[in-house]
Amino acid sequence: MKKVFRDYDQKALDDQYEQRVWVPHADEIIKRYAAESDRVRKKLGEPRVERYGPTQRETLDIYGSGKKAFVFVHGGAWRRQSSREQAFPAEAIIEAGAAYVALNFANLPTVTLPEMADQVRRGIEWVGKNLSDQLVLCGHSSGAHLSGCALTRIPSIRKALLVSGVYDLLPVRLSARNDYVRLDERLEHEYSPIRHADRIRCPVTVAWGEKEGAEFFRQSKEFAEKLGAPTILGEGLNHFEIIETLADSRSPLGRAALNMLQ
Question: Whose CA, among 83, 129, 219, 233, lies 20 to 30 Å from 212?
Fold first, then answer.
């Protein structure tokens, strides 16, 4: 078979960037995000919702308050999920004395990737101007990619925790995922955070699950090496399970987040 990227033929590359090949029960785990978020809202109450941009999806869900803010950018392959399912880590963050902010934004293909990245940037900047300038940024999966893009453009972010992301878009452009991401070579370069790592000014921790597919494992490891960043390997955890541990202050991921807020 013809090699498309590294040692991958087309099907093998496509499988590397389709998480449900590696985690067939992914939707069950994502339902847990929503169920736990519902439980958190029953305990904490509904969030304060603020609009940060001109379109309907440009909103923020703010839980709690404090001198610092923890902004979470959700994953979903750039085309799934919303802020509503992302309240599950809020309790631990609020107990640490910070506001927890779940960022909402439009998904592909209703917008382009540059438009999505601009929305995420605007949301983070709104928090910095209106809520707290002591801002910790966290992103998961495609949200880690979008957070990485934001780090190359927003110098005021204090610290960042990136979990199970994609940081070089070349293999994405060559994969079946590009049917909806719609990258060309220019966009691939511009929105690959690893190629602009010299613009990132704040401390970053890079995390990923032990049971990630090989490409997500490689991308995380190489981005951490490029940044000289500390890493967290979620032992025994897949791509979707690792972010659940953000809600557990005893887990390596939870401890890292809380340490960033100190």
Answer: 83
